[in-house]
């Protein structure tokens, strides 16, 4: 029986009406690689590159970064690995790159820093591209995009990194490029952003914080932080609709994807893949296998008419209990 359960955990998850929904793992440490493979991750949906930067006492060199990225890309190949460019600032500080601000979550963070420091960004992009030589599974993801101008700036630098490497006679496959939707302005730009990239990935941790004006790390307001708030659900619906109109896949890599009740709604919205912490992988696959997409759509339609997060949660919990 345990053997069967283990095999089931390793199999891709399919809804009862036959929709395959890949479940990827979130990661930031090389130490996560084996646990995520053993737990049946279909790839890495979010590799937080700032984590290896945080444990050093200076910026890692291009060669050092290649070593880090290569190990994770090679070990999951041919399964996809999404490397997110540096997302420091906010609550994530580099000891050797101090940023002091009164409102760090509204300040200099993520893509804003790397666009202002092209030398840091280009080194990282070059390392990602060089690490992917001979492989074909690299996705690059830009964090904290709040406008088309930022996306274009990031794409220009990626293009430049690639051209430099081609001039240096490297053979570099073209990576897939995606944008995180984690700032409310990006929700309203979802379709326009999606048209310019290969995929969208919703960062619900930040998106919920910014939509509801609730610091994700402040315990005093933790009760107000709610993934099933109707505003959050309407925002996610808008993102999935925008991606669909642009004909591009959309994934979700925030903690919300690991919440079984929320996962039902995401399946109903037609999200293409989920990325969760390793500890939640098996549970999320169970949710996918326990529902048809049609049933998830019915539940979503009901929830979208409701006003109280607690009532939405109760309805979904009831559906989970019925599913066993
Ligand atoms: C998010 O914001 O949901 C996300 C996945 O990124 P991070 O938690 O690293 O900010
Ligand atoms: Mg984020």
UniProtKB/TrEMBL annotation:
Species this chain originates from: Thioalkalivibrio denitrificans
The protein's name: phosphoenolpyruvate--protein phosphotransferase
Family assignment from sequence similarity: Belongs to the PEP-utilizing enzyme family.
Compartments it resides in: Cytoplasm
Top-level lineage group: Bacteria
């Amino acid at each position: 029986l345990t053997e069967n359960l283990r095999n089931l955990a390793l199999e891709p998850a399919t809804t009862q009406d036959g929709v395959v929904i890949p479940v990827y793992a979130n990661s930031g440490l090389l130490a996560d690689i084996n646990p995520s493979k053993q737990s049946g991750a279909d790839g890495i949906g979010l590799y937080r590159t700032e984590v290896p930067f945080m444990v050093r006492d200076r910026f890692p060199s291009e060669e050092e970064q290649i070593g880090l990225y290569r190990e994770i890309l090679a070990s999951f190949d041919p399964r996809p690995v999404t490397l997110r460019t540096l997302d420091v600032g906010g609550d994530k500080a580099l000891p050797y790159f101090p940023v002091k601000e009164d409102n760090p979550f509204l300040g200099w963070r993520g893509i804003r820093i790397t666009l202002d420091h092209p030398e840091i960004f280009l080194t990282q992009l070059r390392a990602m591209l060089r690490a992917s030589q001979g492989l074909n599974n690299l996705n690059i993801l830009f964090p904290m995009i709040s406008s088309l101008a930022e996306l274009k700036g990031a794409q220009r630098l990626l293009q430049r990194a690639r051209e430099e490497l081609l001039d240096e006679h490297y053979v570099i496959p073209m990576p897939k490029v995606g944008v995180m939707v984690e700032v409310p302005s990006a929700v309203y730009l979802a379709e326009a952003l999606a048209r310019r990239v290969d995929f969208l990935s919703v960062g619900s941790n930040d998106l919920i914080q910014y939509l509801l004006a609730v610091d994700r790390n402040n315990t005093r307001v933790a009760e107000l932080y709610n993934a099933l708030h109707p505003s959050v659900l309407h925002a996610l619906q808008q993102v999935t609709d925008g991606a669909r109109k642009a004909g591009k896949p959309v994934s979700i890599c925030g903690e919300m994807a690991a919440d079984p009740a929320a996962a039902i709604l995401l399946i109903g919205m037609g999200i293409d893949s989920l990325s969760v912490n390793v500890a939640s992988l098996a549970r999320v696959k169970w949710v996918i296998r326990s529902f048809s997409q049609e049933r998830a759509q019915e539940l979503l339609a009901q929830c979208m008419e409701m006003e109280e997060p607690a009532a939405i949660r109760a309805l979904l919990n009831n559906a989970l209990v019925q599913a066993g």
